[in-house]
Amino acid sequence: MPAEPARNDLSIYDTAAGHWWSDDVRWVRTLRNMVPGRLSWFDRHIDWRDRAVLDLGCAGGFMAEALAERGAHVTGIDPAARAIAAARAHAEARGHDIAYDIGVGEALPYADAGFDAVVCVDVLEHVADLTRVLAEVARVLRPGGLFLFDTINRNPLARLATVTVAEDILRLLPRGTHDPALFIKPAELRRGLRDAGLVAGRFTGLGPRGINRRGDLTFGRLPLTAILYMGVARKPGGVAGG
Ligand SMILES: C[S@@+](CC[C@H](N)C(=O)[O-])C[C@H]1O[C@@H](n2cnc3c(N)ncnc32)[C@H](O)[C@@H]1O
Question: Where's the Methyltransferase type domain (predicted)?
Answer without folding.
Answer: 54-149
